[in-house]
Amino acid sequence: MDLTFYLQTFDHFIIYLAVSLVLFAIGTYIFKLVTPYSERAEIKNGNTAVSLKLLGKMAGLVVVLQSAIRHSINLVDLAIWALIAIVIQIVLHLVIEYVLTRNTNLAKEVEKGNIAVGLLLGGVSVLVGMIVAATISY
To answer: Which PANTHER family match (predicted)?
Structure first.
């Protein structure tokens, strides 16, 4: 095992980690912008449904970022793929949440604490993230 190789590439690890964490924060922030209620306040008040939904969104985002990291050829490529994937994931989530369930306001159900709906939407975010992640390749 050549320890010098790892020491020489450690800076790349740190840079990719920092950029990925920033992209994660940006994606999470954008998700919070499209949510019609304060997730922070709801979670602080003990709303498990909101917590499950947010956790699913974040997990789906991590899956997408992981794929972007694996398939990128440099930092610019990583940022471009990650931002495209974040936007696609948000759009698909909104389509699923609002268009396919026209007769039920799922956001209101989650805000009211409906754990089943929160878990479903969080799970859908993970599944959509997996599909989006699988499409990031060369």
So the answer is: UPF0719 INNER MEMBRANE PROTEIN YJFL
- Residues in the chain, overall count: 138
d(CA 129, CA 135): 10
CB contact at 8 A, 52 and 14 = no
The position carrying tokens 């992209």 is 23
How many other C-beta atoms are found inside a 10 Å radius of the C-beta of residue 69? 17
Residue 20: what residue type? S
In percent, how much of the chain has pLDDT > 70? Answer: 96
Angle between helices 48-71 and 75-94 (to 10 degrees): 140
Name the CA radius of gyration of the chain, rounded. 17
Is the whole-model pTM more than 0.90? no
SS3 119: helix
